[in-house]
Structures
1.
Amino acid sequence: MELQIDLGRLLQEIPYLKMLILFGSRARGDTHPNSDWDFAVLYDEELRRKTVEGFGWFRDIGIIGDCLNLNSDNIDVVEIQRCSELMAHHIAQDGKLIYEQDPGLFDEFKKNSLLSQNKIDDIINKSRTRVYQFLREQGL
C-alpha cells in the first residue's frame, strides 16, 4: 500500500514534528493481514511543551492517522527521544523516511543509531540476565 500523506495538514496540526519514519513490517515489506503501522517521531521538545497542554500529545496518533488516511487504532508511535537504543537501531535499520524538517536529519539519526552485532548481542544478553534474575527473585 502506497502511503498518501497530507503533509501540510500534518505540519499544521503537529508543528513540533521534526521527523516521521515508517518502520517495522510495513517498511520491510513483510506484512500479514493483521499488521499494524509503526511510526517513529522526532519532536522539537521545546516547541512541543509550548504547544501541547496536559495529555494533549495523545492526539498525535489520531492526527498521523488522519493525515495518512489510516485507522489510528492500527498505528503505534515511538518517540525517538524516549526509545531504547535497540529500538532506535531497528528504526534506523528498517525505517523509511516520510518527513524530515532538515535535510540530512534521518541520515544523522541512522549514523548515530545503527549498532554493531556485538553491541546488539550484549544488550540482549544483559536483558536476558535481568529477566532471569527477576524470575529467581520471584521464586519462579
2.
Amino acid sequence: MSYTADEIDVLIIGGGLSGGAIARTLTKTGARVVMLEQGPRVHPMDTAMVSSDWEFDMRRRWSGNPNVRRLPTDYPVTGGDFQPMLYNAVGGGTNAYAALWHRMKPADFRKGSEHGVGNSIDWPLSYEDLEPYYDQHDNFFGVSGVHGDPSYPHHRADRMPPIRHGSYLQRAADACDRAGWHWWPSDLGSISEDFDDRQSCNRCGHCMMGCPREAKGTGWNAYTRHAVAQGLELRTGARVTRIVTNGRKAVGAEYIDLETGQEHIVRARLVVLAANGIGTPRLLLMSANADNPDGLANDHDQVGRNLILHGYSLWDIWTKDPLNNFKGPLGGAVYSHEFYNTDLSRGFVNGMTMTFCATGGPLFAGLGGFMEQNPAPWGAGHHDGFEQRFDRSFFVAIQTDDIPVDTNRVTLDPDVTDSSGLPAAHTAYALHDNDRAALQFGAARVAELAAGIDAEVSGPGLEPYNPPGWHLMGANRMGSDPTCSVTDGQHRAWGVDNLVICDVGSMTTGGAVNPAATVGALALRCADLLVAEQRSGLAVSAAG
C-alpha cells in the first residue's frame, strides 16, 4: 500500500460533470486538488460517432449501459430488467447523453409542500438560490437555444443561435399548434458557434455517444480540462475501494490502480464524493467500518433509498414524406410543457415534458424506429419497406417526474463483483402508480397529436414503456432532515465530517426534465460554498 507524500487539500472521487465543475472552481483558488476516476479519458476521435458502424457500436462497446459494455473499468449493476445509463470515464455521463438542457422550475423544488406523495420532500434550497448557478453553468458550457419561453422564469444566461434541425422540427411544431399546445425550441448543451476552443456543431446527427468536434459540451471540455490547466492532478484508472475515516471524520480514500493492481491511499483535508447516482451510494455502503457499521452517512438507513429515474414512454411518429430526421443533434428539437404542472383533474400529481427528437440513421429506420416496433420486413419486401421508413419518422419522449419511495433503492450485491472483486451495485425499482397514470395520459395525447397531422404511431402499446435508468437521481439526496436524506442543503454528509457529496444522486426530486443543467448548477453552488467555508477555516460538517 502506497501513500501520498503529504495531505492534500481536496480529494474528488469521480471525474464526471459534478466533479469537474467543483474542480474547476477549487483549483482556481490555488487549492491542491486530486481527482480519482476509475475510467479513462476518452478522446473525441475514439468515440462511436466517427465509425460508419456507429449505430451498431452504440448497441455494443459504446452502449450507455455498463452491463452491455462490460469493460474492466465498469462495475455491474444488477437487479431485474434495470437498464442503467452511466459511463465510467472522465466526463462521466456526459459521454453518453443527448445534451438536452432544461432547467427545473420553481415548483419542482417544493413537491413535499405541494403534495407529499410517496417520500416527496421539499428541496433545502429554492429555484432562486440555484438560478445564478444555472446561468454560470450555461455560460461555461455553451448553450444554443432561444430566450423567452413563457413557461419558464426569465434568465440572463447567454444563448447561441439554435442549431438547425431537419424539417421534422417544423412538423412537430405544426402538430403542437394544431392541438393548441405550448411548444418551444429546445435548449441544447451543444454549440452552434465556435466557443472555448471547441468547434461548432456540423449537424451530423450522430452525437448521442460523443462528438468528434467537441461541439457537445461535456464535463471534460467545459470543466475538467480547465481544472487540469489550473493544477488539478487527474488520476485515471483509479478505482476507489473505500473512503477512509478517523472515527466520524473523512480523511481520504483507498484506491486500486487498474493498470498495475497496486493499492494506494490519498489523505485529504476534505473529501468530495461525486461518483454518480449509483456509484456514490455503492461507495458509501462499501466504506462501512466499526465507527460507521451501516456505511457512511447512513445512520438513518437513507443511503441508496429514494432512487428516482424519471418515467419514460417513447413513441415513433411515422409520416409519408421525408423529414431530414438524420440532420442536426439527436437531442430534441422541440418540447412541450403543456402538461407540466400538477392538475389533479387528470388523476395524478406532477406532470410531463413531451420532447420531439430525431430518429437517427438507417439502422434505426430498418429496425422500426427508436422503439423498434415497426421494423422493415425481411426478404423480398425489405427494400420497399425500408424506403417507406427511412427519413420518415421522429419520436416523442414522454418524460414524467418520478415519485420517490423507500423500496426503490441501491444496495450491494452479495454475489456479483466487478473486475477488482468489489461488490456490484444492486438495484430495486418499480414505477410508482402515479407516474404510470401520467404516462398513460401522455400516450393518449401522442395519439391525438399524430392524428392531427395524418401520421401513424408505433410504440409500447397500452402499457407505457419504461426503460429505467437514464437519469440516476435521489439515492443520496439532499434535505433538511437527516432521517429522510443523506446530506444537508450544502451537500455536507449527515454524521461524517469533512465529507461532501454532490452529483446527480443529490437531487431531491427530479422534475420532468433532463438533469444535466441542474446537476452542473448544484456542483457550482457546492464549490462556492466550499470555497467560503475553507476561507473561514471552518471544518465541513452537517448539523443534525
3.
Amino acid sequence: MTTTIAVGFSGVGLAAAGAVAAGAVGLGLLALAGRRRSRSRSPKPYASSGYHKKRRETQRKKATSLNKDSEEKILQRAVTLIRKQDVTGCGMKLVCELAGLNEDELTADQREILKLVDKLPNEDGGGITDYKAALEVGRSLSSCSQTFPLCSLTGTQLMQTIDSYLP
C-alpha cells in the first residue's frame, strides 16, 4: 500500500521559507516560549508569617538561583543550535531589522525577540556574539540587507514566517 501526500504551492512555499528562515523561526519561538514560561512562574504569596515564611522564601531564592543558572546554560545551548541552523543569517537579519525600529513600532512578540538577545551573556557561546553584533548593527541603523545578504526575506516576511509556526 502506498500513501501519497499532496502539498499545494503555499505549503511548499511555507516549508521553503521555514528552511531559509530557520534561525529567525528558532529565535522567535525561543523568545516567545520564554515569555509564556515566565508568566506562569510568578511567585505566590504565603498565607503564614514568621520563621516558616522566611525559611520558604530562602529556599525558594536558592532554588530560583540554581534554576536561573541552568536556564542560562540551556538558553546558551539553544542559541548555539539555532545559530548552526541559521546558515542564511535570517535570524541575525531579523534581530538587526527589529533593532533598527523605534520601540513604539514593535509588537510584543518583536520586543520579546530583542529582549532575548539583549539578555544573552556577552561571552561567545557558539553564536551568541553573532546575534549581539546583529543587534548593534540594527541599532546603528546600518543596512541589514547588505550586512546579511544571504537572507532574501524582509523583517516583515520573517515575522510572518515565525507567526505561521505559532498556534
